[in-house]
Specification:
- There is one protein chain.
- The protein is 55% helix and 12% strand.
- It has a single domain (6-210), classed as P-loop containing nucleotide triphosphate hydrolases (Rossmann fold, 3-Layer(aba) Sandwich).
- It has helices at 17-29, 45-55, 64-88, 99-109, 114-124, 140-150, 162-178, 192-210, and strands spanning 6-10, 35-39, 92-96, 132-137, 183-187.
- The mean pLDDT is 94.
- The protein is α/β, with parallel strands linked by helices.
- Strands 2-3-1-4-5 form a five-stranded parallel sheet, with helices on both faces.
- Bound molecules: ligand Z5A.
Length: 214
């Protein structure tokens, strides 16, 4: 495996990110890569504590700006303590969500100013950009059905309307159109085996760009 990189998985809830992140990690390991699997918000002990603050439902109102700042607070901790050191050690980092999630959920979903999100991204991780992003795309109703069938407890996003998730999905697809070299759209409504095949092909392309397979 050549130069390592950051691979992110994105999509609305229930798209299969966690399932496919683990599969992508195994795919890379099978080709000799050292791999670190992680997720956002969270990924380190402290960032997971910020995750709980950001996602747990509670009596106090959390504004869209506050939510954005919590996502970036968790991200700053995660990049500093896990992502950047792992990349510097030559490991591949497979991350379940990253800054595209803030662009899609807080930006497209909640209407937070896109320029402000980009300024925060530039401040928090100017040197860390995904080598490739796998956007698991599927109809909102299918994703929500899958997520609700397996969810242990509701988070603050659980109560959002279908219209909110439609805006998030459209936001993701707009990001993919704007960055077609980095973001590969995967048909996540397909059977798992077909999704895995698409991910394998996308990883081949990604590894070739990042430095090639052994
Ligand atoms: N959030 C944010 O707003 N801003 C940010 O910057 C960041 C995050 C980073 C938590 O994220 C929330 O944080 C999230 C956005 C917000 N809220 N929402 N929505 P999360 O990633 O931890 O939570 P999630 O998106 O709700 O994850 P999830 O529901 O666990 O979905 P998933 O990881 O994409 O799916 P999965 O667990 O892999 O699969 C779901 C089920 O479907 C499972 O039973 C699988 O076996 C099944 N599955 C998967 N693929 C298939 C196929 N192809 N066919 C059939 N069944 C399948």
């Amino acid at each position: 495996m050549g130069a390592a990189g950051l691979i992110t998985l994105e999509g609305i809830e229930g798209a299969g990110k966690s399932t496919l992140a683990a599969w992508a990690g195994e795919w890379l390991r099978g080709r000799g890569a050292r791999v670190r699997l992680t997720r956002e918000p969270g990924g380190t002990e402290l960032a997971e504590r910020v995750r709980r603050i950001a996602l747990e439902p509670g009596p106090e109102r959390v504004s869209a700006d506050a939510e954005t700042l919590l996502m970036f607070a968790a991200r700053a901790i995660h990049v500093t303590n896990l992502i950047r050191p792992a990349l510097e050690r030559g490991e591949w980092v497979v991350c379940d969500r990253f800054t595209d999630a803030t662009r899609a959920y807080q930006g497209a979903g909640r209407g937070v100013d896109a320029a402000w999100i980009e300024a925060l991204a530039e401040r928090v991780h100017p040197d860390v950009t995904p080598a490739c992003t796998l956007l698991l795309d599927l109809p909102v109703a299918v994703g929500l059905e899958r997520a609700r069938a397996r969810r242990a407890g509701p988070d603050r996003f659980e109560s959002e309307t279908q219209a909110f998730f439609e805006r998030v999905r459209a936001g993701y697809l707009a990001l993919a159109r704007a960055a077609p070299q980095r973001i590969q759209v995967i048909d996540a409504a397909a059977p798992l085996e077909s999704v895995q095949q698409q991910i394998g092909a996308a990883l081949e392309r990604c590894a070739a760009v990042a430095g090639g397979l052994p």
